[in-house]
Amino acid sequence: MSSGSKIPDNGDYIKINDENIKIFDIVLASSSLVAWIDESTEEQSEHLKVSYVDDSNISKDPRLQTRFIEELPDYLDPEKSSISVICSVTAGKRKSRQVFKNLVEPLLRSLNIPYNYIPTLSSSTIKDYAAELHRNVEPEKILTVIILSGDTSISELVNGLSTAQDSRKLVLLPIPTGSGNALMTSLGITSPAVAVKSMVNTEPRPLKYMGVEFPQDSIEILPPTDDTPEGATAPVFTAKPQPIAALVVASWALHAALVGDSDSPEYRKLGNERFQRAAQANLERNVPWNGSIKYHSPDNLEEVSVIEGPHSYVLATSVSSLEPGFLISPEGKPLSGRLFLIEIPYLEPNEVFRLVMLAYQNGRHVNEPTVVYKEISDAVIAVEEDEDRMRRFCIDGRIIMVPNKSTVKLESKENIFRNWYLYII
């Protein structure tokens, strides 16, 4: 198996079974078949096509070296892994089913890979599935989950895991179909087609995360559904509080407010544009968020640094981009375990808007004197707000409201969560 190096799009073609195939579009090749992605101009969608070939056609072509496989990787080998496909049917613009049918299902079928298909039938589908994984999969097997979704569903899956008695291995193969795909964007996976090309030819990498500790009485604000069009709330913890894994972002103030407000059905129809619309509405309110932030730098764990409020924007992340072009943390490297804090103090709305929009200009906001941009090992955010909506935090799209005069703790973590070793393709 290759390490997943990319084939350059230099316009080269290869003839297989009398058909010219663009080398850049090839997903995999073996001694018996070749699979590639074909763009249908009629349907404006992408389809996986498979041709069965003999070894002499392709095995010696050096241009296909990074796509040629002799055997399935362990995480897709049915003898070594239990493979599931989670299809988040309401993610983004509701294209997950189409992407599964056009791209993922033909690839699995062509490789004779059995799998368990799980469509999200309710808001608890992913959480319920994750909670039973330690019982449903043999301990010696790798658990592989192909998940067609955005960031929130991936986070739900990881945080839904029950603590395993013995250490287990979970390999995630995300296919970005949500309106927020920051994790995959930062990894260079900018579309479902790119993700499918990586499925068979990439080594799993440790998925490090940010551990977030919320107080006991925290409340989760659930997005509207067909059954609960006005949304709902639920306690975050029904027993002793446990740390939550943030794979992408933990935020308070403007970012958390705009994500929370943009979760209405009307906003969701806009895709990524919903975040900008919600941001404009919050900037028009022009309210300060009161509280303080204490943090340690990785190179000086003895000294505590303090950022006093009021604040406009508070965000911690390990990724570089929250969406294509929005470079919120220029030094961020996904999967590196490095954690960065971005803070903008309370300013006039036009100035806050200008600073945030500089992230679209190759991350120029971090060079502004009013913006705090620091690498941290951990942080404690103390909230001093009477109004409920001012105490909302965003964890990978999940909105959690904390009690007044409470603290939220953040800390960089390795890839072990509840005795599960986390990996990602």
Name the average pLDDT: 89
Which oligomerization state do the chains in this entry correspond to? single chain
Biggest pleated-sheet summary: 8 strands, antiparallel
Q: Overall 3D geometry?
A: globular
Nearest-angstrom radius of gyration? 22 Å
Number of strands: 28
Uncertain residue segments: 1-5
The percentage helix is 10-25%
**Beta-sheet strand percentage?**
25-35%
What is the number of helices?
Answer: 11
- Widest beta sheet: strand line-up: 13-12-25-24-15-18-21-22
- Structural class call reads alpha+beta
Q: What gap, in angstroms, lies between the N and C termini? A: 13 Å
Describe this entry's structure for a reader:
It is a single chain. The chain has 425 residues and is of the alpha+beta class. It is 20% helix and 35% strand. It contains 11 helices and 28 strands. The protein has helices at residues 55-58, 96-110, 125-131, 133-136, 151-159, 182-186, 192-198, 254-261, 265-268, 273-285, 349-357; strands spanning 13-16, 19-22, 26-29, 33-40, 45-52, 81-87, 116-119, 142-149, 168-176, 205-206, 209-213, 219-222, 232-235, 244-246, 249-253, 291-297, 300-308, 311-317, 321-323, 326-327, 339-345, 372-376, 378-383, 392-395, 398-401, 407-413, 416-417, 420-424. The strands form 6 sheets. An 8-stranded antiparallel β-sheet has the order 13-12-25-24-15-18-21-22. Strands 6, 7, 8, 9, 10, 27 and 28 form a 7-stranded mixed β-sheet that branches. α3 (125-131) packs parallel to α5 (151-159).
Q: How is this structure best summarized?
A:
The chain is an alpha+beta fold and 425 residues long.
